Amino acid sequence: MSTSARKLRVGIVGGGFMGQVHGRSALVSGATVVGVVGSSPAKAEAAAEATGAERGFATLDDLLAADVDVVHVCTPNNTHREVTLKALAAGKHVVCEKPLATSVQDAGGLQAAAADAGLVGAVPFVYRYHPMVRELRARIAAGEAGLITSLHGSYLQDWLAGADDQNWRVDDTTGGPSRTFADIGSHWCDLAEFVTGDRIAAISAQLRTVRAERGGVQVRTEDLATAQFRTEAGVVGTIVVSQVAAGRKNRLYLEVSGTESSFGFDQEDPDRLWVGHRAGSQLLTRDPETLSPDAARVNRLPAGHAQGYQDAFDSFVADSYAAVLGETPVGLPDFAAGARSARVVDAVLRSAANDSAWTTVDNQ
Question: How far apart are CA 326 and CA 345, in angstroms?
Fold first, then answer.
């Protein structure tokens, strides 16, 4: 996977952790990182060094005036709409961090703006790019699960477990009305829908804020959430997401239970896929010699050589750039996926605010 057909020129807005991840993937994919906009003009050069960019730009307008094909938006959530609209108006393709926007209306507006401009918009739901996720998807599509009966799992982290742990995402004016579900629950829901081809139709959710105050500031976003749901096909499911689960660093687990086979994927052990049968179970290991074609396409290393998060991100960026160059990569999460995620998060918030009442997800 590379952009060797034409060396794309990209810019990055935001030089923090995610900007650095995007920068590495851009370089691996063969693009030139022309420049980056930091959190302030004074930090532009430091941001350039952190992301691998050729130079820092003082403002977004300066970056958009440069010769760039793609803009990566890696800024706080409440700025995604403004930055993305400016980039699209300047004729740039956009890779925007999730959540695409902090409201259903804004996310749908960005989806429409990209479509109207005829430009690629992609959102990094990168767990789609683990080869064993693609293998799971292929096996379900082939009917190996039989009748899918339930979906269940969790996404657990502990980076905000401490009383003094703080981050801009905690502030609802910056991060948006949902934190934990919008940040990580969205990944789980996207993955469940991606591998099954079935969509969540209705949801009953509850939220909990464990740390009501952080650093002297009142917290209005959730530290954890639980939900039960049903899909359009009638499958029932449950999910637990938390950013205050001590000892869990980034543990996304999805299990698909079926009448013939069940499957379990653990993001912290991504080279393996558990397959359960009534007569016995097996653990499949990532091996390019035995993977299904779509799984083999996103495989980057020989069997036995651990492949992880950055590799998945590299594959996502490579597919985004392939789309810019006119290809149609299978499973690329676009702005429609970002808008879809916003509708699921909105249903969670509405349900929790209404005493966990069953709430329909807008499945437009």
Answer: 31
